[in-house]
Amino acid sequence: PSPKSATDDRALAPPSLSARALPERTRAMDSPGHSPTAASTDRSPFGGSDPDDDPVVHEPRSLFGALGSRGAARASAADPGAFWDQTFTGGVGIGVGGVGLVAQDAAAQHSTLLGSSLGDGDGLEMYFADGKRRAERRRAQLERGSDASGDVGATNVASHSGDSLAFTPRLTSRDHDDGFHPESLVDGDALRDAAESFAANEARRPYGAFPAPATSLGNRRDEPESPTTVPPMSPFDTMEEELAHGGYGGYGGHAQITHALELASGELTDGLNLRGLNLRGKNGDRRLPRSAATPDDETARSAFGSQPWRLRDADDDAFLASDWDSPPERQKDFIDESEMDRDDYGLPGGGSRRLAVSGARASSIANRKDKLWKLSSSYLSNDVPSIQKSLVQHVEYTLARRRYKFDRGSFYQATAHSVRDRLIERWTDTQQFYASRDSKRTYYLSLEFLVGRSMGNAVSNLGLRGAYAEALRQLGYDLEDIMAQEKEPALGNGGLGRLASCFLDTLATLNYPAWGYGLRYKYGMFEQRLLNGKQVEFPDYWLTHGNPWEVERLDVKYLVRLYGHVTTYNDETTEETRFKWEGGEVVVAVAYDTPIPGHGTYNTNNMRLWSSKPSHEFDLASFNAGDYYGAVEAKERCESITSVLYPSDDNDNGKVLRLKQQFFFVSATLQDVLRRYKKRLAPGRTLKQFPKKVAIQLNDTHPSVSIPELMRLLLDEEFLSWEEAWEICTETFGYTNHTILPEALEKWPVPMLEELLPRHMQIIFEINHRFLSEVEAQWPGDVQKLKHMSIIEEPSDAQSQKMVRMAHLAVVGSHVVNGVAEIHTKLVKTRLFPDFDAMYPGKFLNVTNGVTPRRWILQANPAMSGIFTSVLGPGWVNDLRRLKTLGPFATDPSFQRLWTEAKLANKKRLAAWIAENLSIDIMTDAIFDMQVKRIHEYKRQLLNVFAIIHRYNALKAMSKEERAKQVPRVCIVGGKAAPGYDMAKRIIKLVSAVGETVNKDPEIGDMLKVVFLPDYNVSSAEVIVPGAELSQHISTAGTEASGTSNMKFQMNGCLIIGTLDGANVEIRECVGDENFFLFGIEEPEVEPARAERAAGKFEPPASFTAVMDCIKAGTFGAPGEFDELLWSLEGNEGFGRGDYFLVAKDFQSYIECQAKVDEAYKNQAGWTESSIISTAFSGKFNSDRTIDQYAKEIWDIKPLPVP
Predict the structure, then answer these.
(1) Alpha helix (H) residue ranges in 438-474
(2) Is 445 helix (H, G, I), strand (E, B) or coil?
């Protein structure tokens, strides 16, 4: 078709979002009388005045290529990453390094820009931060007839060869320009040359496959010089609307870096002058050429489909406000009919069937429902004035504070409620949509959810960070300061809880229908403080000022029974013997819900936490009799169940409380899941179809008691047969094993279970009896096999009671068991459960862990995320495979300069944070060496501190001149020790004592600093991880299941020193041997090394003995203070003796590897190259990949994006 005139508005109107139309609520910002954007006359630094032109919508066009055909757009529907895969390999558009070519098929290009191909959605909208909403707004404005100087802004279209027309992506103008534009630092020629050089040298490509750019680069070299692409701005700067004055409140590029330093140090830092790099193309022009055709009216009309409320007729001259007032009928399909008010149908309560009603009554009901629907058919507006009004209203009406007297605490609460309002809109719509589609859901059961602060994650995922930042700025507040007011939820302890939270983020982002279930701990685990270098535990009062992110569900309560007895009776219908659990103590589980938003999607999932309450609040009779404590005794006993995470289990009362916690958690959860399923029972569907609609994942062994509890509910409450109940149970549950350490594989004494959960003990005995019958049938007469595989462990010399092996129960009761790293899964199959693997071939599989880049790059590292967005477009956040394209540029000097400036900014931020919180000054020209994780002997913090002492002694022995040649180092250790874990507490004390001595030694000065960070949590990790340069993952080979902190550090350009343990193995495979500092023996050598020690044949190296002698002499702390800690490293064998985790065995290899680290750091160009490669090949360890594997291989669930 012939090109359309630039003055023809309809020619610019892009096709619709296919059949997946936006909900009616999304149009609130465009309602008549509301102008989301005022026209700006400022000129963008990239040409044109287009304040409303949204770079996020143009996201697929980036430095590395553009979509080339409609077919390619459609091909990416099944796999959104296919677009980039094809682009990189030259199959579409141009390959790596290309910057100029754009789509030749205008229809495909328009659909790409909007995240939809003609007719069929291509799935690319997942890359856009609310790009759908912006596209809808632009379309509406175009349809209203706005010209280039109106609200829409100028959409520059220029004619080129043939009939090609295309949009030109541009950044919006800024009144307050920060002077730092990462996109201007990208020299296309330099990057292309680097790519050619890198690709030509095959020896330099051990890091895994990355796209070969040779073909497309060769073509590009013969073409005229292309100006550098203007990539989209950072997701931190995406807003619902351009501000009227043309400035954004978000921080991008240089502003992100300097602002982070400003927050940390309290003063403006202007040390990152990257503007002088002069890395633009030779032409100095930053605009893209345009070469694509625009679809004609008929093409656009057919793409929109029959949606009269969305597209006006071609003959209409005016756009009617009424067209926007009527919500689309499809939205009403989301209503969950099973939740309709029973009063509407004359139901006094109970049941879900609809009764016949008269025509008049039905009409009245319909009218009322329609009216209620229309009253809530619009989303809240997200322009700055609307947000400000929302903030002030919450201060006055929600918090009941007086006007004009707003402190930061009040504004945090108001901001949180304002953001939560917008979350709840999406949240309720998502849940209604899931219910209307009756899809299969996953329920993720975890005793921990280490969620971190919610505000930053919420505004980023909603695409509202810039809008809220500006709204607060105009009111005299800073968003970062407001976010710092949030108290971190104390709902987890370490990697297990953080992994669960990453999974919830990913499930929402990938549009999977899923809920997380856990416990709402009143005091968390504990708040860690150091007193004289020793860990002291204090209650974590995180709920003192309430939690604005949660919704208390007083209408969602379940009774959970403890203790009591079991009676039998005959079923009158079937004449079968039935069991009934009676008596005992009844606790009430009350639900608290927290919305979990996805990034770049409307889907918002739910995290439901249970709080324990008494069934009888107050005993008035006891009170009147003078027994005041007895009047509230039951209340305190019940509420203690959810008071503390992991109560100490070094006594019987602690063990009972832990078991109560676990059962309370799973019982309430399973009752809730069953209730939700039974609401939708219909003809032809019974409980036998339960596994087709429900998948339950057990995160470690803690929720394993859910297996007998589900059996109890199905047998005793639903009256199914044993065979039917067991089939449902095994097809529903999946079990994730996270460790092979014996203490983490829980065992409960049979007498304790019989007293606390008498019916469940009966069921466990029956499960074990039937299971052992199967074992006997497969291995007749093999008594040892029966003994090893039995769920019930018989008494032995080590224990006097029968024990229930909860890990065995989880394996028997689940249809899939997965490990969390390749080496871990191998050990689970060969060392932990070899007999089970032989009995159930294919039941065990590997799903390597992953972490979310939304939290650990986008939010934690704005400096680096700004670089990624400038080069790759904002879609990298949801597709880390794009980072591979940075690999060829790891040696490019200009890119390295940008990278090191970002890393230095993060180091300065961390240094300022440490100075402010710990009053320790550290140098930023040193290696920042981190080991932050739970304190445990197998993680070998002791090996780290011994090496620090060795380094200290070596520095002390040097002359001043020799010392000056050494690489300075800052050693940072952080983590909590379990309250009853004395050995771990002694390790913390030793680290503190070493720091006390080293940091005050004037002879050492700034050559070595040692810092212990107390109360390590998610918020502190968001500062620590981006600033790290070396991260230690040095557990004894074969003891760490996976580790996730190594993944977070890798994503942020940190190099790893470690053993071949957990995910280290796979990380090293991805980044290459030369970019990983490896030391120590491997897993097959561990048991022989222990045997060597037990036989008295091992001689520790002299370097190790010297450190031991130094500690014994009292160089650090008082003489004899650490004798018990050192005794664990002495002797040949025995409990707490014989160096079980082989610190001495690996010590010499470890210090030699640390010497290699020092040498590598002296070559800063080489170190930076390794840092870039580390990040470039971190995509495998993205939780998006992990969850997608769970969904396909274990849960069998499908994405269900909310339209």
Answers:
(1) 455-462, 465-474
(2) strand
Helices (H), 514-651: 620-624, 628-639
Report yes or no: 1196 and 507 within 8 Å, Cβ to Cβ.
Answer: no
Tell me the angle at which helices 941-957 and 1143-1162 cross, rounded to the nearest 10 degrees. 60
Biggest CA–CA distance in the chain, Å, is: 99
For all residues of the chain together, what is the average pLDDT? 76
Give me the residue label for tokens 């919420």: 458
What's the CA gap between 1021 and 852, in Å, rounded? 14
CB burial of 710-743 (b: ≥16 within 10 Å; e: otherwise) equals bbbbbbbebebeeebbbbbbebbbbbbbbbbeee
Place of tokens 């100029």: 100
Using CB atoms within 10 Å of the CB of residue 318, give its burial: 0 to 12 exposed, 13 to 18 middle, 19+ buried.
exposed
Q: Residue 335: exposed, middle, or buried by beta-carbon count in 10 A (0-12, 13-18, 19+)?
A: middle
Please state the pTM of the whole predicted model.
0.76
Please report which residue ranges of 399-444 form alpha helices under DSSP H: 408-437
Q: With 70 as the cut, is the pLDDT of residue 1080 above it?
A: yes
Pairing type for strands 1030-1033 and 1008-1013 reads unpaired
Per residue in 807-852, pLDDT (tens digit) is 999 999 999 999 999 999 999 999 999 999 999 999 999 999 999 9
Listed residue (704, 610, 698) closest to 659, CA to CA: 704
* Residue 549 near residue 416 (C-beta atoms within 8 A): yes
Cβ–Cβ under 8 Å, residues 248 and 237: yes
Handedness of CA 390, 394, 395, 397 (dihedral sign): positive
What pLDDT, on a 0 to 100 scale, did the predictor assign at position 1135? 60
**H or E stretch at 676:** helix 652-679
Kindly indicate the confidence band of residue 885, based on its pLDDT and cuts at 50, 70 and 90.
Answer: confident
Mean pLDDT (whole number) for 548-561? 96
Residue 1193 has pLDDT above 60, yes or no: yes
For the cut 90, the answer to whether the pLDDT of residue 586 exceeds it is yes
DSSP 29-96: GGSTT--S-----PPPTTSS--TT--TTTTTT-BTTB----HHHHHHTTT-TTHHHHHHHTTSSS--T
- β-pairing, 585-597 vs 604-614, is antiparallel
Give catalytic residues, as residue numbers.
738, 933-934, 939, 1044, 1048
CA torsion, points 391, 396, 400, 403, in degrees to nearest 10? 120
Strand pairing category for 534-538 and 527-531: antiparallel
User: Torsion-angle region of residue 210: left (phi > 0), alpha (psi -120 to 50) or beta?
Assistant: beta
CA distance 62 to 395: 42
d(CA 1097, CA 1092): 5
Instruction: Kindly state the average pLDDT of the residues 204-222.
Output: 31
Helix (H, G, I), strand (E, B) or coil at 566: strand
pLDDT of residue 619: 62
Dihedral, CA of residue 144, residue 147, residue 149 and residue 153, to nearest 10: 70
Q: Which two tokens stand for residue 64?
A: 């590395």
- Is residue 890 within 8 Å of residue 1169, measured between CB atoms? yes
Q: Which two tokens stand for residue 531?
A: 């007193």
Residue 1157: pLDDT above 90? yes
pLDDT class of 132 with cuts at 50, 70, 90 = very low
In which band, very low, low, confident or very high, does the pLDDT at 406 lie, cut at 50, 70 and 90? confident
Angstrom distance (rounded) from CA 658 to CA 522:
15
Burial class of residue 171 (count of CB atoms within 10 Å of its CB; 0-12, 13-18, 19+): buried
Contact 200, 175 (CB under 8 A): no
Q: For residue 131, what pLDDT band results from cuts at 50, 70 and 90? A: very low
In 3D space, the residue among 296, 62, 345 whose CA is nearest the CA of residue 182 turns out to be 62
